[in-house]
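Exam revision sheet. Question 4 asks you to relate a sequence to its structure. Input first:
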Amino acid sequence: MQEFIMHELQYIALSIMAVVYIAKIFWILSFKPAVENTPSAGNKRKAITMSFFSIAMPWSMESSRKKWYKWVEFVILHIGITVAILASFFIPESPFLMTPGIILFFQIVLSLAFVVSIVRLGRRMFSPVNRLISHPDDYFSIFVTLLWFFLAFFAMPMDKSNWMFTGYFVLTAVLIAYVPFSKMSHYILWPFSRYYFGKHFGHRGTYPKTKPNY
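Answer key, structure tokens:
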């Protein structure tokens, strides 16, 4: 059963994710993109490039400049997600990669991501503004992610007799299959939104800021 959970169950979940995401991409591409008919006042290629890399340039966004700690939270959380995903492939497929140094690094990252998840859940629960804009799926997603980091931390030593090891792989499969149907699938829109943001505002010369050419 444990071998099934570590291998076949993960592949089934990944297949569900792939089918749903392919359908979503075709749906997004079915919309006719807006076309600017005005004379170009900026550099669209530069704007598109900056738009994609803005995620790594917190100083370029007013929200990150004013609340830099939220950007740090964002980075830690997403590195934690990446580590938890990598471990779910490394452990069953390439366990030799899980050296003591890698395990320690993964556990440090997962610990930090766990703390960030608690902070974000608390903000959703106790901040009046965040409560107002939060959907039940937001609470559920954060709580499940928090639980996932917790189980992943204790699964890293690869003790197959520990119920948390099995629980980590079960929850990983559940998350993989569930994410495409939840708000956590927002990242599928990210490359499209970044491209059109850069193209649209780059054409107008408002991003990045350019001096008027009188």
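Marking note for examiners. The chain has ten helices and no strands.
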